[in-house]
Amino acid sequence: MHTTSDYELMLRGVDLRVTRPRVAVLDAVHEHPHADTDTIIGAVRERFGDVSHQAVYDVLRALTAAGLVRRIQPSGSTARYESRTGDNHHHVVCRTCGAVADVDCAVGGTPCLTASDDHGFTIDEAEVIYWGQCPDCSTAPIS
Amino acid sequence: MHTTSDYELMLRGVDLRVTRPRVAVLDAVHEHPHADTDTIIGAVRERFGDVSHQAVYDVLRALTAAGLVRRIQPSGSTARYESRTGDNHHHVVCRTCGAVADVDCAVGGTPCLTASDDHGFTIDEAEVIYWGQCPDCSTAPIS
DNA sequence: ACCGGTTCTTGAATCATTCAAGAAAATGGG
DNA sequence: CCCATTTTCTTGAATGATTCAAGAACCGGT
């Protein structure tokens, strides 16, 4: 659990101005891991009153650029955001319901960064998405 | 290089009716690896005359479901399609220009399928995207 | 060649995200 | 503490990939 002033410090730490929408979004992302933009907008409004969706989009972009949140976007989903950053973890996504869970990288610190043949690319990140069925969806078959 | 009858055989092999749009799309995907939908529509029309964009969308979905093509969609890109399927290869994507290149899986046959903690998910595929700069973009810095 | 079911065409709708212009607010200096 | 400057937020509209819907055309088997 974080307090408002924690979020203030985070924002100042990356040279971002402290505004209510930013604190609200930061809080929403921490409280709702892997939430999509619409969910975040809803959570922000519930706690902090009216905030334009445009502001939330802007804030999410700013926070992502600053590294305070991480954006993930599995095929078929809209953008989702999470607060765990910088630890090179990955995700499992349920093909049926879209649920997302975190997966720690099995290999170590900055792993996965070596492609067999990089075609001359300078690689700075390896993103891994495991696809499958979540416990709920694999139990309940297609009705 | 494939001929029209090759594509016919592929379609029949997965119990799909052989139609001109399908052959055309199959050809376009083979000729333009990692092309987005719009490029495919263009290629199809250039070779086979008018085909509705809706038909191309339908065909791409059918071919993807049948396993004849694979759909990839790196964050920030529209859907892209490729003809290499079933060999568990991965991709490098250029952050600057969006170029995509294939990367063979370093580990072996059906690798990467083991997450450190799968949270009870039944995993059937691991998708890896390496992010970085392609040779062209890493040479020419931001103008 | 005909029939039934699939697939294509046409045209409109959806929805996440972005663009634009002006109003409001945040930080640093006086 | 107040002002000026710059950033950020609000409002409202636009974009663009993708999908929905209804009817026409076509594929494959009989």
Secondary-structure blueprint of this entry?
The structure is a homodimer of 143-residue chains.
Chain A: H1 4-13, H2 20-31, E1 35-36, H3 37-48, H4 53-66, E2 70-72, E3 80-82, E4 90-94, E5 100-103, E6 122-133, H5 135-139
Parallel strand pairs in A: 4-6
Antiparallel strand pairs in A: 1-3, 2-3, 4-5
Helix pairs in contact in A: 1-2, 2-3, 2-4
Chain A binds a DNA duplex (30 and 30 nucleotides) through residues 17-22, 36-38, 50-55, 57-59, 62, 78-79.
Description:
The structure is a homodimer of 143-residue chains. In chain A, 37% of the residues lie in helices and 20% in strands. The first copy, chain A, is built from 5 helices and 6 strands. In chain A, the strands form 2 sheets. A 3-stranded antiparallel β-sheet of chain A has the order 1-3-2. In chain A, helix 2 crosses helix 3 (37-48) and helix 2 (20-31) crosses helix 4. The radius of gyration of chain A is 17 Å and the shape is globular. The mean pLDDT of chain A is 89. Strand 6 (122-133) of chain A pairs antiparallel with strand 6 (122-133) of chain B.
